[in-house]
Write a structure and sequence with these properties.
Elements (H helix, E strand, L loop, with lengths): L3 E4 L5 H11 L7 H10 L5 E6 L2 E14 L5 E12 L8 H15 L4 E4 L13 E2 L2 E8 L15 E6 H15 L32 E7 L2 E11 L2 E2 L2 E2 L1 E10 L2 H11 L5 E9 L5 H4 L9 E4 L2 E4 L2 H6 L7 E8 L8 E7 L4 E5 L6 E4 H7 L6 H6 L3 E3 L4 H9 L12
Parallel strand pairs: 4-5, 13-14, 17-20
Antiparallel strand pairs: 1-2, 2-3, 3-4, 5-16, 6-16, 7-14, 7-15, 8-9, 9-10, 10-13, 11-12, 17-18, 18-19, 20-21
Bound molecules: acetyl coenzyme *A (ACO).
Family: Belongs to the acetyltransferase Eis family.
GO molecular function: aminoglycoside N-acetyltransferase activity
Protein name: Putative acetyltransferase
Length: about 400
């Protein structure tokens, strides 16, 4: 049996998407979700695997721009909607789609590929490294106190529907994108993702709402949240789920947390997918009682090592030679000299002796400054070949702001 890979024809989208839905368990998505992802499909960048007339594999690559350390916005392919039919699994179809896709991304001149994974285990073999992490937590209001900075009383709060608050929320989001590595500039249509709230996914909670934070008539923050009422014999036992929260300054952000932590008849605040350095940790009296948990967020793959390492800046001067292993994209293999600082960088091929040896996956993990090369070295995944090179590169690659992407794709 041979399968053929070809670019997705709009007329075949329903069949193609049906394969994806089935691979994810066969539960039909809400019509608005399906419609959104159809509208977002970039047909010339999406492929299907076909066994005769049967679609047996799906994969796509959105056109994104990623914020990297230093604040530049770099073209990146957002790998998405990857699936293989259960009848055809473990015959190499995923591998063939990843091969085709990375060749395509290279030919489009995009130095990076990104994804958010259903299972992280799948993608390391193709050179993707976990570059951002997201924290989840639950604030138990009966045990944890919130202390907010002065000035929160000067922030006015207004509850709206998601739709009504969308334009103002998006304006806040857009202002924050350049300030945090890992964030993606919103392309037209993507704002609709924030409106998805199918009743079937609410598990007894209210429809999502928006609260806008305003100062002097200007919107300076917003949160998307839902309330789940509950009662125990002893009284109210409801919870608030925080799905998005962003403030243009510390006081605006704290005013939103204070509001969400004081909703009547609720006792818990469930925090979803926040940056690992998020401010709430410094507002609560004890982090440990909030039971923080971590999960991988964005995976990064350097498609062109030289161009990718030149596209970001470095928070301290660096001059190191990397010996890069990349069996899946052999054009990256070999030695690269990276010279850079906070103003810019060059990364060129060299025959000089290597200072650090690693695979492209580790470069992806470290790329946004959230995973240190030193911590990867501690796990045996980076080898130091010149004394001092690990410290030099680890400091330079770091970011004062933890990289984060608030949503999947
Ligand atoms: C970015 C995103 O869209 S994430 C969504 C990914 N999709 C899903 O999770 C949907 C459900 N799963 C699937 O559709 C399929 O099982 C896929 C796409 C994960 C794998 O497709 P396949 O065609 O079976 O993969 P393929 O045969 O190319 O496997 C390549 C290698 O990866 C390994 N592999 C594949 N899937 C997994 C997995 N879930 N966990 C661990 N290893 C895996 C295989 O064992 C194989 O290893 P080998 O080369 O050492 O033998």
């Amino acid at each position: 049996m041979t399968t053929e890979l070809r670019v997705l024809d709009p007329l075949e989208w329903d069949r193609w998407y049906g394969v994806l839905e089935l691979a994810f368990g066969g539960v039909a998505e809400a019509p608005e979700e399906r419609e959104l992802y159809r509208d977002l499909t970039e047909f010339d960048r999406f492929i299907g695997a076909w066994d005769g007339g049967l679609c047996v594999g799906t994969a796509g690559a959105f056109t994104f721009r990623l914020t990297v350390p230093g604040g530049a916005s770099v073209p990146a392919a957002g790998v998405t909607m990857v699936s293989v039919a259960g009848t055809h699994r473990r015959r190499g179809i995923l591998t063939s789609m990843m091969r085709r896709q990375l060749d395509d991304v290279r030919s489009w001149g995009e130095p990076l590929a990104l994804l958010t994974a259903s299972e992280p285990e799948i993608y390391g073999r193709f050179g993707y490294g976990a570059a951002t992490y997201a924290a989840h937590a639950t604030i138990d209001r009966s045990r944890v106190r919130l202390t907010v900075p002065e000035g929160t009383d000067g922030v006015a709060l207004r509850v709206t529907s998601l739709e009504e608050g969308l334009k103002a929320a998006e304006a806040v989001y857009a202002k924050l994108v350049p300030g945090r590595p890992g964030m993606l500039a919103r392309r037209p249509g993507w704002e609709r993702q924030a409106l998805l709230d199918p009743p079937g996914d609410r598990a007894g909670a209210s429809p999502r709402m928006c609260v806008l934070a305003e100062r002097d008539g200007e919107v300076v923050g917003y949160a998307h949240y839902a309330i789940k009422p509950d009662w125990s014999f002893a009284g109210p036992d409801g919870s608030v789920s925080v799905h998005q929260l962003a403030g243009l300054d510390a006081v605006a952000e704290a005013a939103l947390w204070r509001f969400l932590c004081s909703v009547d008849l609720t006792v818990k605040v469930k925090i979803h997918s926040r940056p690992v350095d998020d401010a709430w940790q410094h507002l609560v009296s004890e982090v440990r009682r909030c039971e923080p948990t971590l999960r991988e967020g964005l995976f990064v793959r350097l498609v062109e090592v030289g161009a990718a390492l030149e596209a970001r800046t470095y928070q301290a001067p660096v001059d190191v030679v990397f010996e890069v292993a990349d069996a899946f994209c052999p054009w990256n293999e070999g030695r690269w000299r990276l010279t850079g600082d906070a103003k810019g960088a060059t990364c060129v091929r060299t025959s000089d002796a290597a200072d650090l040896a690693l695979s492209v996956r580790e470069l992806g993990a470290a790329y946004l400054g959230g995973t240190s090369l030193a911590s990867l070295a501690a796990a045996g995944r980076v080898r130091e070949l010149r004394d001092g090179a690990l410290l030099e590169a680890s400091v330079a690659f770091g970011s004062p702001v933890a990289p984060w992407l608030p949503h999947g794709f």
